[in-house]
Every structure is written in C-alpha cells, then in structure tokens.
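Supplementary Methods. Inverse-folding protocol.

Structures were first reduced to a discrete structure-token string of length 248. This string, shown here, constituted the complete conditioning input.
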C-alpha cells in the first residue's frame, strides 16, 4: 500500500467518512512542505445530522488532525476564528487540496472562507491597544533590566508575542501562533517583522536584547508609543488580565 500522504488522506476519508459532503487536505502536505513525519490536517464537511468536532488519530502509522464540521458548525467556527483574528480554518478551506466534493459543497465552503480572508480580521478596540501598549512598555523595561538569562528569555517570548500582535493589528492582518507567528509577521511587514524576529534570534544566541528592544520599540511607536504614567483602566463586568508582560 502506497505511503503517499494524499492517497492516505483519501483512504482515511473514504473509510471513516463514507457519507461526507466534502473533504479538504490542508497544512504542509497540501502546500508541498511536508516531511516524512508530517501529520495530515484534514477538514471534513458532514451532513447536518452529524457532529462538529476536532480529533487526533493515527492512520496507517501517520498522525492525523481531523476537523469535522456540519454546515452550521463550519459557519460558527468561521465566525469564532474571525473574532479571534486567526482565520485558521478559513486558510484550510481556502488553500487546501480538495480530496472530494459532493455537489459543490467544498466550493461553497471555500467561497465563504475566501470572503473572510479578503475582509481581514476585526481591528482591536482602542482601549485594548492601549492596554497592550502598557503591557509591552512594561515588558520592554523588564527585558532591558533582566540580569538572569532564563528570565531574559522568558520576557523576550512575551515581547515577541505582544509586539507581533500590535504589528499585525496595525496592518489589519491575521495573527498566528507557533510557526505561523513568524510567517504572518513576514507576510504583513517584511522589514519590521524580520527585524523583530532577527532581534529575538540574536538575543537567544548572544543574550544581548538591544536589537530586539530597538525593533519592538519601533513597532510600539507605530501604535502610539510607550505608555506608563497616565494609564488607567476601570473594570466593567468580567475582569481580564491587565496585559501580557505584566510583572505578576
């Protein structure tokens, strides 16, 4: 039996979801970046009587991430991904390889995904940007002052995440986590994104935070600059974390 991952994905869907409406192979396998150990990311659209869920399985020795949705469940998850500013599922449907399609279901789902991607994520509320500025300002102060190498690396991770969030919002671009964070940064702003990532890499290699502080400070200036005294937030309803990078 062939170990071709696309053929594996088709066999899995045929065996496990014989009544599915459509199936999409996404991730590194669909984009041609897969390695021998890459998992399979498969989105499966099922009838309205089915369930919407995510499940990790192993099939023919390969790890598979299943994203199973009804039509209504897919719309709900698209809306949740937009609200979270991530659009992970939309990217799967918009760029993945169609394994099979019943009566144009995959095409309709792809059209919805592409519409969300064209629209872009919602902008952060001004108060949220202010809080993120405050948190990043605090984190940059900590990064400049940190003497302990482990603490410096920990703070650098928070600075990278917070700065990326602000830069991507500035460009009205989707955010990403893990390996998708640098990809999203470089897509949205090749110059500033690369400077931030290079500064983070330099800090990890040498312990010197100067390049990262310079890059993050430049991005912070785009959205209003450092914020310390004068910041005030009045709590209403649910109390959320004050800011990433705070001292507590």
């Amino acid at each position: 039996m062939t170990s071709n991952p696309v053929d594996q994905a088709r066999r899995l869907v045929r065996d496990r979801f014989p009544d599915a409406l459509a199936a999409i192979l996404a991730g590194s396998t669909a984009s041609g970046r897969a390695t021998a150990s890459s998992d399979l990311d498969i989105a499966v659209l099922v009838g309205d009587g089915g369930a919407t869920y995510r499940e990790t399985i192993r099939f023919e020795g390969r790890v598979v991430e299943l994203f199973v949705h009804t039509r209504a469940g897919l719309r709900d998850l698209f809306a949740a991904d937009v609200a979270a500013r991530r659009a992970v599922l939309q990217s799967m449907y918009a760029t993945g390889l169609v394994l099979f399609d019943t009566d144009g279901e995959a095409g309709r789902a792809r059209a919805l995904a592409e519409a969300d991607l064209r629209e872009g994520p919602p902008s952060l509320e001004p108060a949220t940007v202010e809080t993120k500025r405050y948190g990043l300002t605090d984190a940059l102060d900590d990064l400049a002052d940190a003497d302990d190498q482990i603490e410096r690396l920990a703070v650098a991770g928070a600075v990278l995440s917070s700065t990326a969030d602000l830069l991507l919002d500035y460009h009205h671009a989707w955010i990403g986590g893990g390996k998708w964070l640098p990809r999203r940064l470089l897509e949205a702003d090749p110059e500033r994104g690369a400077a931030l990532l290079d500064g983070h890499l330099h800090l990890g290699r040498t312990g010197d935070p100067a390049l990262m502080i310079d890059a993050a400070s430049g991005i912070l200036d785009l959205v209003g600059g450092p914020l310390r005294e004068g910041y005030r937030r009045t709590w209403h309803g649910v109390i959320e974390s004050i800011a990433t990078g705070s001292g507590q």
